[in-house]
C-alpha cells in the first residue's frame, strides 16, 4: 500500500474505528458471560451487576481527563494507551479467579474503553471536510455497535468451546494486532503524526473546562446525550433481558431477539440521523426532542398496558428506544460546532458523560426499586416490580427534556450573537 493510501482519511478512520469496535466488544463481552462469571467467581447477581456499575462509573469518570489528554497529546498517543489498558485488563480478566482481581481487571478495561471514542471523534474532525463530519460521526457510532453484536454470538461460542481463559485471551489478543496497525497508520492530522496542544497547568485546565461548560452549546450537547441514550444503554447492558423475560413474560429467545433488534435499529438509524442533521443543523435539538418524546410515549404505553404488552408493542419499544443511541451522537455535533478545535476533545468528554452517568443512575435505581418491590431477599422479580422500576426512567427524561428546551434557546441566541459580532467586527 502506498503512503498516500495508508494515510487517507478513510484508512486512518478505519483503524480508529477498528479500535472502537474492539472497545465496544470488550465493554459488552460480560453480557453473555454472566452465568459463567457467577460460577467462576462464586458471586451473587448483585455482585455481577457491580461489574456493570463499575464499568459505567470508570467510563463516565474518565471522560473529562481523557478529553484534556487528547487536547494536549493528540488522539494517536491517547488511543494507543487506551488500547494497551484494554488489552492488559482483558488478559488479567482471562486469568482472574477471584472477584476482587476481576473487578480491578474490568476497571482497566473500562479505562481503556473510555479513551477510545473521544480520540476517534477528534480524528474525524481533523481528517474529514466540515460538511462530511456529522455523517461520518454517525457512521462511526453506528459501526461501533458491531462490537456489541460480536460480543453476543461469537463470544457465547468462544466461552462454550474455548473456555473462559482462552476466550478472553483471544479477545485481548486482537488488541496487539490493532496496536501495530495504529502505530503504522494513525496520524493525528494530515499534516503530522502527533498533534501536541499547549502544556497544561491546573489553572489552564480549569479555564478551558470552564470555557467549554459556559458555552450553552456544550450544555445543550450534554443534556441531549443525557436524555437520548440511557434507556437503550441500561437495557442492553443489564436490565433489558430480565425485563422482557420476567416483566413482560417473553421467552429467552424472544428477549434475545428484541435486544438484537435494538442494536440493528441503532445501526440503521445512525446514518439517517447523520444525514438529517447535516442538512438541517439548525434543527438538531428539534430532532432530539421529537425522538425523546417518542421514547417516553412508547414506554408509557408499555408500562400502562394491562398485563404483559403484546410482542408487536415490544418490537415498537425496542425500535424507538434504539434510535436514542445514535440520537445521542447529535450532542457531539452540537459540541463540535460550539467549541474551538483546541478544546474540542474536552468538550466531547463533558458531553459524553451525560448519557453514561444517566445510565449508571438507572442501572442502580432499577436494581434498588426491584428489591424494594419484591418481598424478602428474593430475586424473583414480578411484572409489577418491573413496572415500578422501569417507571424510574420518567424523572430523568423529564429533566433532560426541560434542559434541552432551555439550552436550545440559549445556544441559538449565542450563535446569532457570534454571527452578528463577526459581521460588525
Ligand atoms: N451513544 C453512543 C454512540 C452510539 C451510536 N449508536 C449507538 N450508540 C455513544 O455515546 N458512544 C460513546 C462510546 O464510547 O461508545
TrEMBL record:
Membrane-traversing stretches: 12-36, 48-70, 77-96, 102-123, 135-160, 166-186, 222-241, 253-275, 287-305, 311-334, 355-373, 385-405
Source taxon at top rank: Bacteria
Record keyword Membrane present: yes
CDD domains: MFS
Residues in Major facilitator superfamily (MFS) profile domain copies: 1-412
Subunit and partners: Homodimer. Interacts with lysosomal protein GLMP (via lumenal domain); the interaction starts while both proteins are still in the endoplasmic reticulum and is required for stabilization of MFSD1 in lysosomes but has no direct effect on its targeting to lysosomes or transporter activity.
Name of this protein: Lysosomal dipeptide transporter MFSD1
The species this protein was found in: Nocardioides aurantiacus
Classification lineage: Bacteria, Bacillati, Actinomycetota, Actinomycetes, Propionibacteriales
Amino acid at each position: 500500500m502506498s503512503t498516500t493510501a495508508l494515510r487517507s482519511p478513510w484508512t486512518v478512520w478505519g483503524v480508529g474505528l477498528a479500535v472502537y469496535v474492539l472497545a465496544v466488544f470488550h465493554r459488552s463481552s460480560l453480557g453473555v458471560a454472566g452465568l459463567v462469571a457467577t460460577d467462576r467467581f462464586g458471586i451473587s447477581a448483585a455482585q455481577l451487576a457491580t461489574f456493570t456499575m463499575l464499568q459505567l462509573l470508570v467510563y463516565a469518570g474518565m471522560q473529562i481527563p481523557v478529553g484534556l489528554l487528547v487536547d494536549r497529546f493528540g488522539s494517536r498517543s491517547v488511543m494507543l494507551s487506551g488500547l494497551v489498558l484494554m488489552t492488559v485488563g482483558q488478559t488479567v480478566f482471562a486469568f482472574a479467579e477471584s472477584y476482587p482481581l476481576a473487578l480491578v481487571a474490568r476497571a482497566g478495561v473500562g479505562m481503556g474503553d473510555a479513551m477510545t471514542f473521544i480520540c476517534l471523534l477528534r480524528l474525524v474532525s481533523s481528517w474529514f471536510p466540515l460538511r462530511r463530519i456529522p455523517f461520518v460521526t454517525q457512521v462511526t457510532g453506528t459501526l461501533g455497535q458491531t462490537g456489541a453484536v460480536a460480543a453476543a454470538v461469537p463470544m457465547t461460542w468462544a466461552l462454550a468451546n474455548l473456555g473462559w481463559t482462552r476466550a478472553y485471551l483471544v479477545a485481548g489478543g486482537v488488541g496487539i494486532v490493532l496496536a501495530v496497525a495504529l502505530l503504522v497508520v494513525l496520524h493525528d492530522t494530515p499534516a503530522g503524526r502527533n498533534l501536541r496542544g499547549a502544556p497544561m497547568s491546573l489553572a489552564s485546565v480549569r479555564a478551558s473546562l470552564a470555557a467549554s461548560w459556559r458555552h450553552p452549546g456544550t450544555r445543550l450537547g450534554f443534556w441531549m446525550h443525557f436524555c437520548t441514550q440511557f434507556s437503550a444503554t441500561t437495557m442492553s447492558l443489564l436490565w433489558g433481558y430480565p425485563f422482557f423475560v420476567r416483566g413482560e413474560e417473553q421467552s429467552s429467545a424472544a428477549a434475545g431477539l428484541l435486544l438484537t433488534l435494538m442494536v440493528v435499529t441503532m445501526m440503521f438509524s445512525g446514518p439517517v440521523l447523520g444525514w438529517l442533521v447535516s442538512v438541517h443543523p439548525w434543527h438538531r435539538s428539534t430532532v432530539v426532542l421529537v425522538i425523546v418524546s417518542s421514547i417516553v410515549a412508547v414506554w408509557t404505553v408499555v408500562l400502562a398496558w394491562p398485563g404483559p404488552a403484546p410482542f408487536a408493542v415490544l418490537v415498537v419499544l425496542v425500535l424507538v428506544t434504539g434510535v436514542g443511541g445514535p440520537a445521542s451522537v447529535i450532542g457531539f455535533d452540537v459540541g463540535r460546532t460550539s467549541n474551538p478545535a483546541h478544546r474540542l476533545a474536552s468538550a466531547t468528554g463533558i458531553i459524553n458523560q451525560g448519557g453514561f452517568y444517566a445510565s449508571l443512575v438507572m442501572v442502580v435505581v432499577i436494581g434498588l426499586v426491584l428489591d424494594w418491590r419484591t418481598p424478602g431477599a428474593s430475586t424473583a422479580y414480578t411484572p409489577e416490580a418491573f413496572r415500578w422500576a422501569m417507571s424510574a426512567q420518567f424523572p430523568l427524561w423529564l429533566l433532560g427534556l426541560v434542559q434541552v428546551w432551555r439550552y436550545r434557546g440559549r445556544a441559538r441566541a449565542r450563535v446569532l450573537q457570534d454571527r452578528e459580532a463577526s459581521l460588525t467586527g
